[in-house]
Amino acid sequence: MKARVHVMLKNGVLDPQGEAVRHALGAMGFGGVTGVRQGKVIELDLAEGASEADVAEMCEKLLANTVIESYQVEML
């Protein structure tokens, strides 16, 4: 069993990496990009019987900084 966790900065939290990507895209001629938010994807290989609640607990304790980041769990 696998799980995929999408972690993004919460709305309102400054995203300097996203802003650097937006600026670089503009410098490369892609002027239509007005905003970029950068996040991360974590794929987990899980033992039989692991639940979405288990993955959410992993996120709360380690995988996401819930003060500034939100996460979404996708069970595969």
Condensed summary:
By secondary structure, the protein is of the alpha+beta class.
SS class: alpha+beta
Average pLDDT rating:
96
Largest sheet: 3 strands, antiparallel
Count the strands?
Answer: 3
CATH architecture: 2-Layer Sandwich
Treating each run of at least 4 consecutive H or I residues as one helix, how many helices?
Answer: 2
The CATH superfamily name is Phosphoribosylformylglycinamidine synthase subunit PurS
Order of helices and strands: EHEHE
CATH class: Alpha Beta
Share of helix among residues?
25-40%
**What Rg, in angstroms, do the CA atoms define?**
16 Å
Beta content:
25-35%
Give the N-to-C terminal Cα separation: 7 Å
* Mass-distribution shape: elongated
Q: How many domains, as an integer? A: 1
Strand order of the main beta sheet, please? 2-1-3
Uncertain stretches: none
Give your account of this protein's structure.
The protein is of the alpha+beta class and 76 residues long. Helix content is 32%, strand content 29%. The protein contains 2 helices and 3 strands; from the N terminus they run E-H-E-H-E. It has helices at 16-27, 52-63; strands at residues 2-9, 39-45, 69-75. The protein has a 3-stranded antiparallel beta sheet, with helices on one face. The termini are close together. The relative contact order is 0.35. The model has no long low-confidence stretch (mean pLDDT 96).
